[in-house]
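TASK: fixed-backbone design
INPUT:
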């Protein structure tokens, strides 16, 4: 089979698709990946044949992808929830398509079209554990559960720590120097070691930091999460699912998009807390306390749920079954 994956050109939208794309390629299928050049490096490094349709940089419209569908004639298009144009183009070309989620079903009002409104007949690869997924979406009979596998480009970097390790990130789109500085100062006061990924904020904007804080613009998150004792973050889907897959409690500081819904779901599951900047130190202290191990137990319960979901490799082996 020839399979075309398509996503918005951002870490949060592309990285969730990469584990399945790699598994599909490893299963012997020919894989191509349509996305803006911003995410081509990790795609190319994994043999996924990335290309930029037309003059697309972030979004891909149906008109951008149509000529590529004529050129490649894929047997299947896997398009993520943030890319309705790919679903429309595949429908117009008569090519089967499957939605690919990046977390909980997209809530209304965050600037993304709801997949159900664009191509309601398409099945969905759903990487969200059922206990956190939107209950109405769970009733969709076309869900195909797939285990979320955290992805980040490998980097030869290790964190040596003798105290509890806190990982702080505000993602690649919502972080500000002011908010990161506030969070760093609050967390540095704890008896812990703090690793900060600054994203779009350059490390020098944080100024001098305490000795127990390590600041980098980017860290290999998938490798770091299993070593963390607490993840403090914005509530982005990738970090939320990554922390849950590692069984790590979370302190969520939602800023926008789907982050408030993610924070509510994690808090409802008992796997973390949602807080304001004024609550960071107190909430972090509570989540790290051995006396409050219910949060870690809840996180590990969701971790076990995720581990029981079908792996990308198993789904790749079954791929022909999902074609009409």
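OUTPUT:
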């Amino acid at each position: 089979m020839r399979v075309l994956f398509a996503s918005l050109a951002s870490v949060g939208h592309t990285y969730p698709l990469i584990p399945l794309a790699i598994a599909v390629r490893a299963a012997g299928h020919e894989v191509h990946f349509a996305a803006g050049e911003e995410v081509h490096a990790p795609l190319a490094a994994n043999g996924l044949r990335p290309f930029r349709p037309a003059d697309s940089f972030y979004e891909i419209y149906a008109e951008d992808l149509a000529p590529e569908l004529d050129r490649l004639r894929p047997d299947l298009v896997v398009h993520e929830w943030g890319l309705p144009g790919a679903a429309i183009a595949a429908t117009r070309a008569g090519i089967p398509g499957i939605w690919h989620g990046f977390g909980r079903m997209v809530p209304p009002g965050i600037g993304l079209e709801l997949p159900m409104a664009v191509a309601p007949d398409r099945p969905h690869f759903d990487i969200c554990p059922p206990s956190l997924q939107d209950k109405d979406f769970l009733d969709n009979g076309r869900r195909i559960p797939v285990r979320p596998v955290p992805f980040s480009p490998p980097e030869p970097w290790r964190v040596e720590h003798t105290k509890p390790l806190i990982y702080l990130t505000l993602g690649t789109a919502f972080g500000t120097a002011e908010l990161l500085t506030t969070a760093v100062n609050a967390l540095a006061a704890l008896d812990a070691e703090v690793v900060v990924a600054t994203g779009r904020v350059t490390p020098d904007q944080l100024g001098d930091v305490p000795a127990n804080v390590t600041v980098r613009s980017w860290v290999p998150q998938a490798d770091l999460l299993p070593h963390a004792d607490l993840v403090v973050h914005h509530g982005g889907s990738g970090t939320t699912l990554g922390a849950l897959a590692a069984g790590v409690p979370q302190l969520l500081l939602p800023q926008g998009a789907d982050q408030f819904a993610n924070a509510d779901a994690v808090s409802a599951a008992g796997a973390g807390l949602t807080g304001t900047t004024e609550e960071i130190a107190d909430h972090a202290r509570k989540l790290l306390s051995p006396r409050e191990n219910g949060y870690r137990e809840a996180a590990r319960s969701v971790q076990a749920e995720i581990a029981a979901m079908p792996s990308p490799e198993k789904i790749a082996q079954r791929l022909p079954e999902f074609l009409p």
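COMMENT: DSSP finds 14 helices and 13 strands in the chain.
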